[in-house]
Design goal:
Elements: E1 4-7, H1 17-32, E2 36-39, H2 51-63, H3 87-99, E3 103-106, H4 110-122, H5 138-146, E4 152-155, E5 162-166, E6 170-174, E7 182-185, H6 193-203, E8 208-212, H7 218-228, E9 235-239, E10 242-243, H8 259-264, H9 269-277, H10 292-295, E11 309-310, H11 313-325, H12 329-336, H13 351-361, H14 370-379, H15 387-393, H16 396-414, H17 422-434, H18 440-452, H19 460-466, H20 469-480
């Protein structure tokens, strides 16, 4: 059997990270089994579906590195790949079900259905459809439609139990009478999700459906429709739900939930994909950091977990940091550039300076956007008046060091030097230690506070040589004025 899987988002908003995880699982399953990964756009919600959302979702999928084998912009033999372009197909098979007495036209209005539902609830009965139109003949139904009446098409639910063996959940049983006759085609001619989903998966020869656990209740209706068409259902695998710290299904109240928000926040696509993959699936070697390409050959549904997966933004940041630090210097420079303010002096620096800058700070950040803060740390002359810094500045030795450093910096500037060298910094420290007899904490904290305006930071010899001498001069002057 040739494996065919699909990702079928609705273009009613931006790509949700839960949807992205589903796409990742399907993509990897196809890769692991040398199968086909299909993108299908479920856009039958005409009021909310927008092409801009579809384009955004496709862009995000490609950003994550998920290339699909068939889709709206890469059609294969099973198209169209937008449900809005398949309405004739859905109508054709709905008519077939009517002809086979497996579906019927329903003329009940919304008001009538609401009243029947309320009555059933009041009488403590299941609020299923009561079968009012179930036995109207096809001929009578067509006459009523021709006369202008509106009708939905309802599926005739068999009075029997159903079951399936889910790849994650094991055997799942659906007792008899869980649902009543349900609508498969609306009165406006558009299909309902559970119906068109089955028709598409059936005709597109989808062999495996990997999706989130919250779709499990839909499976009952879908199994009924597969049976009505005498079609073999795909193999189902319902992955765990994503939840927030309150153990509730992940939503906007837990923070950013769309992929494009993470793009804007400078997360690496490989890091987001890595983290999402681990939310409900485990690496056989218990590895936490990897690229999707690293696990294409070992991915299996047997590693899925039943337990809800806790979405933790701090763990995502940690994962992103690991991927960021593994990048070579040239890539770090290239990928960080777009997140640094366009008018920053950073962009005027040469490649050697930029290389030393990113290597100095890559261990200190989680996101590319944080490089921007570090640029300000290098070029800014503002003094953070922390209690620790003010204490250091109050030492008599710190003032003595300031006087000396100011003289040395003036000398370099007068000789047209823009930056100090590591040799310069080393000489200054040796002079303070040997000639001025200042050692230990007063030495190193005194030099750092005067050169940087801070009481702590990265390697001083590198940081000070990245900072323009005029900026250091300005800091010293401001410190002297405190």
């Amino acid at each position: 059997m040739s494996v065919r899987v699909r990702f079928a988002p609705s273009p009613t908003g931006y790509l949700h990270i839960g949807g992205a995880r589903t796409a990742i699982y399907n993509y990897l399953y196809a890769k692991a089994n040398k199968g086909t990964f299909v993108l299908r756009i479920e856009d039958t919600d005409t009021e909310r579906s927008k092409r801009e959302y579809e384009e955004s979702q496709i862009k995000d999928l490609k950003w994550l590195g998920l290339t699909y084998d068939e889709g709206p912009d890469n059609p294969g033999e099973y198209g169209p790949y937008r449900q809005s372009e398949r309405t004739e197909i859905y109508q054709k098979y709905a008519n077939q079900l009517i002809d086979e007495n497996k579906a019927f036209h329903c003329f009940c209005t919304d008001e009538q259905l609401d009243a029947k539902r309320e009555e059933a609830i009041a009488q403590e009965r299941s609020p299923h459809y009561d079968g009012t139109c179930r036995n109207i003949s096809k001929e009578d139904a067509l006459k009523r439609i021709e006369s202008g009446e509106k009708a939905t098409i309802r599926f005739k639910v068999p009075m029997k139990s159903y079951s399936l063996v889910d790849e994650v959940r094991g055997k799942v049983e659906f007792p008899e009478d869980m649902v009543g006759d349900f609508v498969i085609m609306r009165s406006n001619g558009l299909p309902v999700y559970n119906y068109c989903c089955v028709v598409d998966d059936w005709l597109m020869k989808i062999t495996h459906v990997i999706r989130a656990e919250d779709h499990l209740p839909n499976t009952l209706r879908q199994l009924m429709i597969y049976e009505a068409f005498d079609a073999t259902p795909p193999i189902f695998a319902h992955a765990s739900l994503l939840v927030g710290h309150d153990r509730q299904k992940l939503s906007k109240r837990h923070g950013a939930t769309s992929v494009n928000a993470y793009t804007a926040d400078s997360y690496l696509p490989e890091a987001l994909a890595n983290y999402l993959c681990l939310l409900g699936w485990s690496h056989p070697d218990e590895e936490n950091i990897f690229k999707l390409s690293d696990i294409e050959n070992i991915f299996t549904s047997k590693r899925f977990s039943k337990a809800a997966a806790l979405y933790d933004i701090e763990k995502l940041k940690w994962c992103n940091a690991q991927h960021l630090r593994s990048l070579d210097t040239k890539t770090l420079i290239k990928r960080s550039a777009e997140f640094i303010d366009k008018d920053s002096p950073y962009h005027e620096m040469n490649d050697e300076w930029k290389a030393r800058f990113v290597e100095l700070y890559k261990e200190k950040i989680d996101l590319f956007s944080q490089f921007n803060e570090k640029v300000s740390e290098v070029f800014g002359d503002e003094i953070e008046k922390t209690q620790e810094l003010l204490e250091i500045l109050s030492w008599e030795t710190t003032g003595q060091i300031r006087t000396y450093l100011n003289e040395q910096i003036d000398s370099l500037i007068s000789n047209s030097n823009e930056f100090a060298t590591e040799e310069d910094i080393g000489n200054w420290i040796n002079h303070v230690k040997k000639e001025m007899k200042i050692k230990g904490k007063p030495l190193f904290m005194g030099v750092r506070s005067n050169l940087t305006g801070k009481d702590h930071g990265p390697d001083l010899k590198v940081l000070a040589t990245l900072t323009p001498l005029k900026t250091i001069k300005s800091r010293i002057e401001k410190i002297a004025g405190l």
